[in-house]
């Protein structure tokens, strides 16, 4: 019979079903190997205690402290009317501050016996405020008893690992479980080739696992972390390098534009010259399209840097070469908008097969889920016969019914809204794999691009086209200074008075039923502003039309409207018939109304940094300067206000994406891109460890070029299998 390798042993067998169940449900840990890779978040030195003075509110904390005093009070209450209610108040201290612990009812007996003054223990619980003082109610605790042979010195200097824990499983229980499985670490198979490991002076993997869980010194922790960081970066980069290598082997049809075809006719019509950035990026794309294996390119460009123009020229080049191009947009509003603006830019070149169409013209069709049956049939027919050279659509493009004559290029707009499966399904529609261009207006720091989109080559458009106006951004503290908000509405009226238009953005629509389950969950008590529900489009539009914006044409736009209604609202706004559009984030990407100069974002603190930057990019698209007002009720010292201050202070998307990452931790960024798979990064920090990632990428590329199948490296193959749990396997497969 086969013995299960030690690290693949299910936790149920080792720790027993109840503990294993909590670990699986709350921490996603299933095997001994998973648990060994659940690293401590930080370490407490028994001599140096956590600063009680710095405790974060409302978070689950673990502190090491000494009992200063303990008092048992009796009181009368509805449950114990005769003054028989008991409350134990224990004060603990760590030298920097004091913290009150409270236990009630029958829960007082055990702590009353054990938590005597002078006792040291680890305490875990949620920090709350009672009578203006910090307290932990009913914390779990573990007494720290020095074993008889342990001297006081070693006891005080020992490093206690503090693990990422949950309310169901305290840090020290996780620590005990890890002690149980730690001997298995000896059997961990090392993924890094020995020569590479020795060349970099990294400790072997079993040693790193022992040192991260049971360090004797801080140097042990450093050794372990640098080894484990390198592992994470390296295994991930090998996965991506294999992906690139496999792509390079795929066949594709080379698509070269004709010298006097559609592309040159289009360029001749352009009323302006392309920026240097657009020309450079176009050259990179055309070089890729001319090769016989599929292009995989990520095009990053600031909001308004002219990405659509670059993508359109690539599509025209493919049509010139006899192929078809498909552009995938995340929403119907956006698909319609792209269709309108592309047809407008192409003029008679988009009227293929029609009277008055130019000789080189092709047909540009749009395909969305809500189209009428007749229009849809015609669009499908135009695609299968090859009559339509360009199609713009939503997920509807991916359905089985949609057949192409010869799909040569897929352009995906706003990558982070598309699951990998969708890109893959569309890619399967070509006779051979089509070329792929992914566009994003969310600037991605170089390291994230190397980690998340490591299978794509990257082009960056960082120059704004001429004629773009600067956008002034200001934070409007509605709670501290209500007159600022009144002034904001006056500014909107002034913009409209000058013949311009404005957006007002709100976090939610306002016709949803309030979900009592959600209502019960409070976010961080950053302050009272969090207590009320976020402002809603329908309420705000109503208040503005009756109040500060009375007399102006105010309309609403949100995701639950019927597509025809959405389209009609957008057309009226684009035509200048509407003064103020009150909308949700449906306007975040791609909406282009050059006459809109002002934007007021309500409850701006409820949006992420990159989202605010995206939204702001909707104004200042014409010759008049743009204005963006970020309205918040958050107090001045709060992190949310600092975040808004950062957005107001710079228009540089790369700078903002860096701030965003530092605040959100990279797990979210990776998680987003990996079709919801949890981030596999545990010790690697995408921003700080740029050098490690870059070096790992080089080493991985060299290694894969020499041995794509990794035949000589069974350890590395095992690590890859572990990294690519099912979801991520698909993610990388589908790239």
Note down, in words, how this protein is organized.
The chain is 39% helix and 18% strand. By secondary structure, it is an alpha/beta fold. It has a 7-stranded parallel beta sheet with strand order 11-12-10-13-14-9-15, with helices on both faces. Strands 16-21-20-17-19-18 form a 6-stranded parallel beta sheet, with helices on both faces. α15 links the parallel β13 and β14. The chain is globular. Residues 147-156, 514-530, 665-679 and 726-735 have low confidence and may be disordered.
Task: Name its key features.
seven-stranded parallel beta sheet; about 725 residues
Largest sheet: 7 strands, parallel
Query: Alpha-carbon distance between the termini?
Result: 38 Å
Number of helical stretches of at least 4 residues: 27
What is the general shape?
A: globular
Q: Structural class given helices, strands, pairing?
A: alpha/beta
Q: If you average the pLDDT, what whole number results?
A: 80
Strand coverage percent: 15-25%
In what order do the strands lie side by side in the largest sheet? 11-12-10-13-14-9-15
Query: What is the number of beta strands?
Result: 21
Poorly predicted parts: 147-156, 514-530, 665-679, 726-735
Radius of gyration: 30 Å
Percentage of residues in helical conformation: 25-40%
């Amino acid at each position: 019979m086969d013995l299960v390798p030690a690290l693949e042993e299910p936790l149920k067998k080792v720790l027993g079903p109840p503990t294993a169940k909590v670990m699986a449900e709350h921490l996603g840990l299933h095997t001994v190997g998973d648990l060994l890779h659940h690293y401590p978040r930080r370490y407490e030195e028994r001599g140096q205690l956590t600063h009680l003075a710095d405790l974060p509110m409302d978070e689950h904390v673990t502190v090491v402290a000494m009992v200063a005093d303990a008092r048992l009070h009796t009181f009368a209450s509805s449950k114990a009317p005769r003054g028989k209610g008991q409350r134990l108040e224990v004060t603990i201290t760590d030298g920097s501050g004091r913290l009150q612990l409270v236990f009630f009812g029958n829960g007082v007996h055990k702590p009353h016996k054990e938590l005597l003054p002078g006792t040291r223990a680890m305490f875990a619980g949620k920090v709350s405020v009672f009578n203006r003082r910090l307290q932990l109610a009913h914390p779990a605790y573990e007494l720290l008893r020095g074993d008889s042979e342990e001297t006081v010195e070693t006891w005080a200097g020992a490093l206690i690992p503090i693990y990422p824990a949950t309310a169901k499983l305290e840090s020290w229980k996780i620590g005990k479980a890890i002690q149980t499985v730690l001997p298995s670490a000896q059997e961990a198979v090392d993924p890094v080739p020995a020569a590479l490991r020795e060349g970099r002076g990294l400790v072997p993997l079993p040693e790193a696992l022992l040192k991260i869980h049971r360090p004797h010194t801080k140097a042990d922790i450093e050794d372990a972390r640098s080894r484990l960081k390198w592992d994470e970066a390296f295994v991930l980069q090998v996965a991506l390098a294999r992906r690139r290598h496999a792509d390079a082997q795929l066949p594709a049809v080379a698509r070269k534009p004709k010298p006097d075809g559609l592309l040159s006719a289009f360029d001749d019509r352009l009323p302006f010259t392309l920026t240097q950035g657009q020309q450079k990026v176009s050259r990179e794309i055309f070089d890729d399209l001319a090769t016989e294996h599929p292009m995989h390119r990520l095009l990053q460009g600031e909001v308004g840097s002219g990405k659509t123009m670059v993508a359109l020229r690539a599509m025209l080049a493919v049509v010139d070469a006899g192929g078809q191009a498909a552009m995938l947009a995340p929403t119907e509003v956006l698909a319609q908008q792209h269709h309108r603006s592309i047809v407008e830019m192409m003029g008679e070149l988009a009227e293929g097969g029609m009277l008055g169409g130019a000789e080189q013209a092709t047909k540009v069709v749009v395909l969305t889920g809500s189209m009428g049956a007749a229009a849809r049939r015609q669009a499908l027919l135009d695609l299968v016969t090859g009559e339509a050279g360009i199609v713009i659509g939503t997920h509807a493009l991916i359905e089985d019914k949609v057949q192409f004559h010869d799909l040569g290029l897929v352009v995906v707009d706003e990558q982070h809204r598309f699951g990998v499966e969708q890109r893959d399904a569309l890619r399967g529609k070509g006779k051979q794999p089509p070329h792929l261009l992914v566009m994003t207006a969310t600037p991605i720091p170089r390291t994230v691009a190397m980690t998340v989109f490591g299978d794509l080559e990257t082009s960056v458009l960082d120059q704004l086209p001429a004629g773009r106006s600067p956008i002034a951004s200001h934070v409007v503290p509605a709670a501290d200074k209500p007159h600022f908000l009144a002034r904001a509405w006056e500014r909107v009226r002034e913009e409209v008075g000058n013949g311009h238009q404005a957006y007002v953005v709100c976090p939610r629509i306002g016709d949803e039923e309030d979900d009592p389950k959600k209502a019960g969950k409070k976010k961080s008590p950053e302050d009272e502003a969090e207590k009320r529900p976020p402002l809603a489009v329908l309420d705000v539009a109503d208040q503005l039309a009756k109040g500060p914006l009375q007399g102006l044409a105010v309309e609403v736009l949100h995701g639950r409207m019927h597509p025809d209604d959405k389209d009609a609202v957008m057309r009226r706004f684009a035509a200048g018939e509407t003064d103020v559009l009150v909308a949700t984030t449906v306007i975040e990407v791609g909406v282009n109304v050059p006459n809109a100069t002002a934007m007021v974002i309500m409850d701006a603190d409820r949006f992420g940094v990159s989202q605010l930057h995206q939204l702001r990019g909707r104004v200042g698209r014409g010759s008049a300067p743009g204005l963006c007002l970020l309205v918040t009720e958050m107090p001045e010292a709060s992190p949310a206000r600092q975040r808004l201050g950062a957005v107001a202070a710079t228009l540089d998307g790369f700078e903002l994406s860096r701030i965003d990452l530092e605040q959100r931790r990279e797990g979210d960024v990776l998680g987003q891109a990996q079709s919801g798979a949890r981030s596999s990064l545990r010790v690697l920090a995408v921003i700080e460890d740029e050098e490690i990632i870059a070096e790992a990428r080089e080493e991985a590329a060299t290694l894969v070029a020499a041995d794509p199948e990794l035949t000589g490296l069974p350890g590395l193959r095992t690590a890859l299998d572990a990294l690519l749990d099912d979801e991520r396997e698909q993610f990388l497969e589908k790239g």
